[in-house]
Structures are given as structure tokens and as C-alpha cells.
Specification:
The protein is mainly α and 563 residues long. Among the domains are: 135 residues, Response regulator (Rossmann fold); 93 residues, Serine Threonine Protein Phosphatase 5, Tetratricopeptide repeat, CATH 1.25.40.10. It is 66% helix and 4% strand. The chain has a five-stranded parallel sheet with strand order 2-1-3-4-5, sandwiched between helices.
Length: 563
């Protein structure tokens, strides 16, 4: 894509403008207002498809895009695709239009860093004033934006510092200060960035100053120094979303995946359209054994990626897989409902994508897992033995799903051998993240130790309990809880077995510690009314024995032995 050039920003009659909005009245107002300013090359599109096609035909210097483009994709994904394809750069004037101002929309827009956000209905006078200012900024700071587009952040800082010393550019100094800080962070000069933002904080209270400062300190692992600041920023509407995002990455970098998961869920809730963030939720959900959130994250990814640059059959495959994962960890009624949805998703994938034939083995694996989850093991075995190769293929996710079907069908040697191949595959993949690495390690460990699904383990525990075989019942439920640590029903069943053991023969130290950790887990969760009545009875009996106070904490002086 050719550079915009300073001369075109200076000469209004050479500017090319693209307006994407499905409202013809918006087109007319912007056209007439721009014509009065001397900007005559204005092209309008009522949908994303036509707007993107126009971008392949000519270079636009100003792009104005509505958030709600109802005919195809929304404005967020239009502009995301434009940035991805190079149609929009730092030199481009980028303006978002919307009649909505809710927090999730504003956060999504902020991620794309537009030059301005215009709220409908538009006013011609305001349009003229605001566009004139933006064009002035682009013209005066052109060399800084050009350097950033070229990835030359050091040179961008040089120009920014020169401009800040120029009193004639005083009204642009705040823009320049922000650009300089972003460049320091891009260069990973975190010590210099900390000092720079610390000085800015003495004079300015803008949200970007606080976020830049926090980012610089988190990258240096100085979280303890900003504990109170972080708390205040997560309560401010203009900073909480970005703060959650920064904290999530900090905890990932420090391998605290539980806290990372808590923070990324908050960020995704406040800005749900970002596919990369939903991918982080998905990765951290499965690492933390949250099958329900894993399913929701894959559904969101497929939903928000529809008709975007991210759209692909792999996203629907992940929805199918996570639906089956959740089905193997819940009660029969919900399990059957999820498996029915998985069947529908398979049909949808085959209908929606012409190249679905490329996913033949993946869909066979999914169907086999569905058969097995419905307790039709022989059908599943026939499918796998005849049509699924134990050899790894190019996709890590495909291989992990094959591991699951082998493991669920009792083909443990094949499952573990394939997991070893996946570990080597990830070791050679420089793009594989720390969370994916950790998840594969966890899978290998658990698949070697635990040979059944949570649903199978729960059924086994019920049979053991009926036959008064409490030790194997407890072992089965303990393993099921390892695989589904947020499952209240499994936790209550485990406590019921411990209660029975306590009444018949008393508890040993390990059983007490298991009861204690389970009580604490349930105390931090949410119970239905019937569950709460049952739980209160168990807690009243076991709580004093395992030394858990009314707040669910370990009493002072109590020694906790790892399970």
C-alpha cells in the first residue's frame, strides 16, 4: 500500500474519503459537509463488502465507519480487517460512528485506536470542527506517524521530542507525549518508560498516562509498588478494561494461570468482540478445567468472527469439541442437550463451508466422541479403528482431540504416544504460547494418571458408594474433581462420601485435608437452594473436624498438608 504523503493531507481537494454506513442520510450529511470544506472525493458504501472492495481499488486518506452496519459485518471487524490488510495506518484519519455509547462498545472501539468517535445523530458544524482538528494533527505530526507505520520507533521519539520543544506546536504536545510513551513501550524500554510516565503523572491525570505507567511497571515485575493504583484503576470506567488486560498478561508471564484467567474473563466481558482475547479465555479456561467457560469462549469466537477476517471452519470445530468436553462433565440431561447441539454444529459446518471435506477425520473424531458420550462405545470404536490415524497431523488442536477420543475409548497407549508427539510439535513451534505449553504438559500428566472422563468417574463412584466401597468411591470423585474443580455437584458427592467414612471409621489426615479444600472451594462458589441445605448439613458435621471457620478459612496455627 502506497504512503499517503504529506501533500495530500495538506491539499483537501486531493483527499480520498470512504464512508461506510447503511444510513443514506449519514452519507448525505457527510458529503455536503465535506464538500463545503473543499473535500470532494467522497465515496460511500452501505455495507462492508463494498467498502472493502473500494479499498482494493484506491487509497483512502479518511475512513469513516459506522459500528452497526447491519447488512453484513459490524464496524469493529471492518476496521480490524482494514488494519490487517494495510488499508488503514497511523497516517490515515480513522473515525468511528455510532448511536450507542455503552461501555463494551466504547472499549471495543478504543482497542482499534481511532482518531475520533462521532456519536449519531451528526451535526454538520461539529463534523467540520472535529475533522479540521484531526487533519491538522495528522499534518503537523506527519513524520511521527510515518515512522510509527514503518516500525522506526526510535526515530518517531526523536521527532516527537523535537516537536515538543517547538512552542508553535503547543496544542499538539499532548498527542506527542502519548505517542512518545507508546513508542518507548514498543521498544521495550520499560525503565525509561517508567521514568517518563512517572514524570507525566505529576502533571496530567489522563487515563493513558496511568495505563502506560502501569504497563511499564508490570513489565518489570513491580506489581507490589502499584497495588493501590491497580485497585483504583479497576474501579474507573475509563481504565478498568485495559487494566484487566494488562494484569492478565502479567500473570501469564509469571505463570500464575489462575489469576490470569480471572483477569482475562473480566477484560473479555468488557470488550467481547476481540477474537484474540476470547482465544486467551479459551486457553486459560481449559488449563483451569473450566469446561463451561471454555465452551462459551469458543461460541463467542465463532459468533464474533462470523464474516470477519478471522472466520474459519476451525472455529466451529472448536465449538463442537468444547461442547463435547462439557457434555462429559455434566449431568445426563444437560449432556444430551450439549451433544445434540454438537450434532447440529457438525451439520452446520458441513453446510456452511465448501471445503468441509478437508475436515473429514476431525469430524469423524467428533462423532466418535459423541457416540462414546452417549454410551455407544462400540459405534465409536468402529469409527476410530477404521478411519482415524494414530499418527499426528499438522494441527495441534486436531491432535489433542484425537488424544481425547483414544483416551476416552481406553486406547491409552495411542493417546499417550500422540501426546508425546504433540509435546515435540509445540517445542518446535516458536509461536506456541506459554499457556498452550502448560496445557499440553497438564494433559500428558492427567491422561497418564486418570483413565476416565469426569462423567464416567462419577458413575463409577455411585456404584462404589452403593456397594459401600468408600475408598474407591472417594478416589473416583477426587479424580473427577481434579478434572472439573468448579463442579459443585461432584464436590458435594465427594463430601458425602467423606461424611460416610467419618461416621463409620473416622478420617485420616489426607481425607481431612481433602474435605477442608473441598469445603473452601464450595464456600467460594454459588449453590442452588437445595444444594445449600444439603451442604449446610455436611459442613456443620465436617467443618469442626477439619478446622474450617465460618468464613471458609483455615484456622490460625493449622498445618495444611498438600494432597
Amino acid at each position: 500500500m502506497e504512503h499517503i504523503g504529506l501533500n495530500k493531507i495538506t491539499n483537501f481537494n486531493e483527499l480520498n474519503v470512504l464512508v461506510i454506513d447503511d444510513n443514506i442520510l449519514v452519507h448525505d450529511l457527510i458529503k455536503h459537509t465535506f464538500y463545503d470544506m473543499g473535500i470532494v472525493n467522497v465515496r460511500c458504501a452501505e455495507n462492508a463488502f463494498y467498502g472493502l472492495r473500494l479499498c482494493t481499488e484506491m487509497q483512502f486518506h479518511i475512513v469513516i465507519c459506522a459500528f452497526n452496519v447491519k447488512s453484513d459485518k459490524d464496524g469493529f471487524h471492518i476496521l480490524e480487517e482494514m488494519k490487517f490488510k494495510g488499508f488503514v495506518t497511523k497516517q490515515t484519519v480513522l473515525i468511528f460512528l455510532s448511536s450507542e455509547t455503552d461501555e463494551t462498545l466504547v472499549n471495543s472501539i478504543a482497542e482499534l485506536q481511532p482518531d475520533d468517535f462521532w456519536v449519531k445523530p451528526l451535526n454538520a458544524k461539529n463534523v467540520t470542527t472535529r475533522l479540521s482538528y484531526i487533519l491538522d494533527v495528522k499534518r503537523k505530526l506527519f513524520n511521527v506517524f510515518e515512522c510509527i507505520d514503518n516500525g522506526d520507533f526510535s526515530k518517531a521519539i526523536y521527532y516527537a521530542e523535537r516537536h515538543i520543544k517547538n512552542p508553535e506546536l503547543k496544542k499538539y504536545h499532548m498527542n506527542l507525549r502519548r505517542l512518545k510513551g507508546e513508542c518507548l513501550l514498543s521498544l521495550m524500554e520499560f525503565v525509561d518508560a517508567e521514568e517518563y510516565y512517572r514524570e507525566l503523572r505529576q502533571k496530567y491525570k489522563m487515563s493513558w498516562v496511568y495505563l502506560g505507567f502501569v504497563n511499564a511497571l508490570l513489565k518489570q515485575n513491580k506489581i507490589d509498588e502499584i497495588d493501590q493504583l491497580l485497585d483504583s484503576m479497576t474501579h474507573r470506567v475509563d481504565t478498568r478494561f485495559a487494566t484487566y488486560d494488562l494484569l492478565a498478561q502479567y500473570y501469564v508471564d509469571n505463570e500464575d494461570y489462575v489469576k490470569a484467567y480471572d483477569e482475562i474473563k473480566k477484560a473479555a466481558e468488557l470488550a467481547p468482540r476481540n477474537i484474540a482475547r476470547n482465544k486467551k479465555v479459551w486457553d486459560l479456561a481449559r488449563l483451569n478445567h473450566d469446561q463451561r467457560e471454555q465452551y462459551h469462549a469458543t461460541v463467542n469466537m465463532a459468533k464474533f468472527a462470523k464474516k470477519s477476517v478471522h472466520d474459519s471452519p476451525e472455529l466451529l470445530l472448536n465449538v463442537i469439541r468444547s461442547a463435547i468436553d462439557l457434555a462429559t462433565s455434566v449431568d445426563v440431561h444437560e449432556s444430551l442437550d450439549l451433544l445434540g447441539k454438537a450434532d447440529k454444529y457438525i451439520h452446520q459446518l458441513e453446510v456452511d463451508y465448501e471445503d468441509a471435506g478437508h475436515f473429514k477425520e476431525q469430524l469423524i473424531v467428533a462423532r466418535a466422541r459423541i457416540f462414546n458420550a452417549r454410551e455407544e462405545k462400540q459405534k465409536a470404536l468402529r469409527l476410530v479403528e477404521m478411519q482415524v490415524s494414530p499418527r499426528p497431523n499438522m494441527s495441534v488442536e486436531d491432535n489433542l482431540d484425537k488424544v481425547k477420543v483414544f483416551h476416552e475409548l481406553g486406547m491409552r497407549e495411542e493417546a499417550l504416544a500422540l501426546l508425546e508427539a504433540v509435546k515435540k510439535q509445540i517445542a518446535c513451534d516458536s509461536l506456541a504460547g506459554a499457556v498452550t505449553n502448560k496445557f499440553v504438559e497438564q494433559e500428558a500428566e492427567e491422561k497418564a494418571e486418570i483413565h476416565f472422563t469426569p462423567k464416567q468417574l462419577n458413575s463409577m463412584a455411585v456404584e462404589f458408594f452403593k456397594r459401600k466401597k468408600m475408598a474407591p468411591a472417594l478416589d473416583s470423585l477426587h479424580k473427577a474433581l481434579r478434572l472439573t474443580p468448579r463442579n459443585i455437584k461432584v464436590a458435594l458427592s465427594l463430601l458425602k462420601v467423606i461424611q460416610a467414612i467419618h461416621r463409620s471409621e473416622g478420617l485420616d489426615l489426607d481425607q481431612k485435608e481433602l474435605a477442608k479444600s473441598t469445603l473452601q472451594m464450595i464456600d467460594s462458589g454459588e449453590l442452588e437452594d437445595k444444594q445449600k441445605l444439603h451442604y449446610d448439613e455436611i459442613r456443620a458435621e465436617l467443618g469442626p473436624i477439619v478446622c474450617v471457620d465460618e468464613a471458609g478459612d483455615v484456622e490460625e496455627g493449622d498445618i495444611v498438608t498438600p494432597i
